[in-house]
């Protein structure tokens, strides 16, 4: 763990994961990505963690993408080799695969993840937010598909995530033009769940997180999996997966507590397993 990624778990079972490189726009290095993936694995196995909030330090940047300065140096060009450095394409593929694994780790984490977007989310940074389960944005936040401005293809699952969120036509518009999308417009498009005043962002994220942390963790985890798979499943597959998830959930303590509380006409008290 480094100071560039801060992690703590509060008494309510809310894990706070904070990107902490404000001087670099909270851009992500490969090392940071690795740390966060380790944290997600740790949180997934920790019964004390019921929900995760992903946010960043400062009031200007949530995450401005991948830190290009942290890329591996180019190897020396062999004598007689073409001007294009050997291995450039393979290194680009390797970097993209690493970013894709990072996005997949967010989506595959069994605990609900709330993105509290405190500022600019550009490129990979936007996709990090879009990969989370719920997104609360400060009214000062902006989302930018910046790749086209650099002559690059959207990576880190951008075309996949955007198409699922806003449909192919709007996804193409966002990716083709790379315009800044202010938080209110992001809300209108369905890219975020809520927009709140910047000063209230942490409080708003904490309120939702505390509600989720008090909920049936197993049921929430299975629901996350079902919803994430729904677009890619036909009805038969989706119904079969749902039936299996219902059976699994009813074996949990919280599943049985929910039924008991209903029968006994009282509030359920969920413990997280």
Keywords:
10 strands; alpha/beta; single chain; 273 residues; four-stranded mixed sheet; globular; six-stranded mixed sheet
Q: Could you explain the architecture of this structure?
A:
By secondary structure, this protein is an alpha/beta fold. It has helices at residues 30-45, 88-108, 124-130, 158-166, 168-177, 183-189, 201-213, 217-230, 235-250, 253-264; strands at 5-9, 14-19, 51-56, 61-63, 113-117, 120-122, 134-138, 142-144, 180-182, 194-196. A six-stranded mixed beta sheet has the order 1-2-3-5-7-10, with helices on both faces. A four-stranded mixed beta sheet has the order 4-6-8-9. Strand 1 (5-9) and strand 2 form a beta hairpin. Helix 1 runs parallel beside helix 2, helix 3 (124-130) packs across helix 4 and helix 4 (158-166) packs across helix 5.
Stretches with pLDDT under 50, minimum 5 residues = 86-93
Distance between termini?
A: 28 Å
Largest sheet: 6 strands, mixed
Roughly what percent helix? 40-55%
Order of helices and strands: EEHEEHEEHEEHHEHEHHHH
Beta-strand content: 15-25%
Q: Report the average pLDDT across residues.
A: 89
Radius of gyration in whole Å, from Cα? 20 Å
Look at the helices and sheets and give the structural class.
alpha/beta
Strand sequence of the main sheet, in spatial order?
Answer: 1-2-3-5-7-10
Q: How many alpha or pi helices?
A: 10
